[in-house]
Amino acid sequence: MRNIATHNLYESLKKKEDVDQIEHEIYLYETTEIQRDGYRHPLKTDCTICCICLKGELKGKIDLKEYSVQAPALAISLPGQILEHESCSDDFHGILIYMTQRFTEKFNLLLGHSISTAIKNRPYMALRNEELQSITAYCKTVRKVIRTDDNPHRLQIITHLTIAYFYGIGYFLHKSIKDVHLSKDKDIADRFLQKVRQHYKTERKVEYYAVQLQLSANYLSHVVKDVTGRTAGEWIDDYVALEAKALLKSTNMTIQQIADELNFPSQSFFGKFFKRVVGVAPKYYR
């Protein structure tokens, strides 16, 4: 994403005394609260964020998909996804891991597309005891390697540890997905939302998604409304509006650039759309 600014996310991490980090590529720290500063509005990040919930509960959204992570559990967001933090319980305790794109680019080719797709489709998961032990062991080992200052191969070691970590996550995700049996209507709604997440920047008509799913537009709209409580058109508008809000708040792109990014014919069309869906003009939301 051009001109993206992450509200000094990395700068705030560098200032924390309890953060373990190496070469400003991977950051790891334990926390008892998710800071609301910078999370009051939809946030589009350029990093991979893992939150291991050890105690309590964390609530929020990733790309409009609501989650309630109850310990022990894991939530992951990938670069380009939009986060909305809502709340965490008073007894929340977790481990946060931030990985820059420069760091993850070193092993993305090795991991392949299937794991990132699995994470996008299911960005959070409950952890069984063996899974929790595996992930916390990874964190403990990474900390130990980072703190071994005289080892010149620390970053390479951590890169390979993280590859193993994500392979493990991919296995758990695929296994948990297989254990979930969806009804026909729920499956249709899930596939519709997955298509919308892929194409909302360029395709904003229900008919397009109906053709993709080999259904009639009326039937698709009926199923989506019945399963989610919102119409297919509302979901499409919500994804476009969410992207627009994130770009307005977390980048320095002009309103015209955002209109172009979202494939509106003009800034005026974008402004009318945004006011209809959000309730205020883009310049006032910013």
What does this structure look like?
Helix content is 50%, strand content 19%. With 286 residues, it is an alpha+beta fold. The protein folds into two domains: 12-178, Jelly Rolls, CATH 2.60.120; 185-285, Arc Repressor Mutant, subunit A, CATH 1.10.10. Strands 1-2-9-4-7-10 form a six-stranded antiparallel β-sheet. Helix 4 (113-121) packs across helix 6 (154-178). The longest helix has 25 residues, at 154-178. The two termini are 18 Å apart.
Morphology: globular
Major sheet, described briefly? 6 strands, antiparallel
Q: What is the structural class?
A: alpha+beta
- The total beta strand count reads 10
Q: How many distinct helices?
A: 13
Tell me the β content.
15-25%
**Name of the top-level CATH class of the largest domain:** Mainly Beta
Oligomer: single chain
* Helical content (DSSP H or I, runs of 4+): 40-55%
Look up the CATH topology of the largest domain.
Jelly Rolls
Offer a concise description of the structure.
The protein is 50% helix and 19% strand. It is an alpha+beta fold.
